[in-house]
Structure formats: structure tokens, C-alpha cells
Amino acid sequence: MLNLDPAVAGLRANWHLLRDFERAQAILPIVRAGMSRRHLAIVLNVSEGTIRNLLLILQADPDDLALFRRGDISQNEILRRVRGHGAVPETHGQQVERSNQPSVRPPKRPNSIEPVPLLPLLSLRRERRVAFQL
User: Fold this and answer.
1) Out of 4, 43, 72, 120, which could bridge 67 as a Cys pair, Cβ 3.0 to 4.6 Å?
2) Which residues contact residue 46 at a Cβ distance below 8 angstroms, ignoring those fewer than 6 apart?
3) How far is residue 38's CA from residue 115's CA, in Å, rounded to a whole number?
4) Which CATH entry fits the domain spanning 5-82: 1.10.10.2830, 3.30.300.20, 1.10.940.10, 3.20.20.70?
5) Do residues 96 and 90 touch, judged by C-beta distance below 8 A?
6) pTM, whole model, 2 decimals?
7) With contact defined as beta carbons under 8 Å apart, do 63 and 93 qualify?
8) 95 DSSP β-pair partners
9) Non-local CB neighbours of 43 within 8 Å, separated by 6+ positions
């Protein structure tokens, strides 16, 4: 196993100077060498989610990466694109076709429970109170 201490120490010293894409490129070899994301997050004093998101950025399309590096899209936007929110899902390597028709909800069933009138029940309660007070 490689000695990762110098690489992590150098990354920690320059962390605040690096942009997100450069951070992602710097942590990838460290994670591939065997350091856990959680331990790396602790050493760098960031959250594990930050490490996970930075590594996700590297999976983006080259066009999206170019936009991100220029500052045209935010980190949240590139993460949305990588995660595929709104994209067509894939199943076993095949794309699932999605129709252009919006999904239609079935109509709500009519309420089959009829409301119970409360006035007779209230009058029964009053009669019971009167009976117990005697």
C-alpha cells in the first residue's frame, strides 16, 4: 500500500486554494489507492457528502464539465445532471422508453362514509352527566 500521508497533507494545505474540479481530481487517486472516503473527509475537515459529490463531478459529460469549469453552471446543477434527475432511466444497459404523455392519476373515489349527525350524540352525553350528578 502506498504512503498517502504526503499526498493528503499537501491536499489539506492547498484545499482552500483549489476549485471544485481540481479538488475532485486530487482526491480521486487517494480514494483509488485505498483511503476511505470517510477517513479522507475527516482528515480534510469536510463532510463525507462533499467527498462523494466531488467524485460525482468527475463522472459528468465533457460538455457539462466544460460549462462547470467556466462557471456557467453551478455544482448543484452538474450534480443533478450526473445523477440523471429528469433523464430517462436505464435498465440492464437498455434504455426504457418513456411516452410523451403525462401520467394520469385515477379519479378519486367518492367518499362512501356518510357523516354522522352529532346533535343526538351530544344530547346523550348531557343526559348521562345529569344522571350521574343525581
Assistant:
1) 72
2) 15
3) 56
4) 1.10.10.2830
5) yes
6) 0.59
7) no
8) 90
9) 8, 12
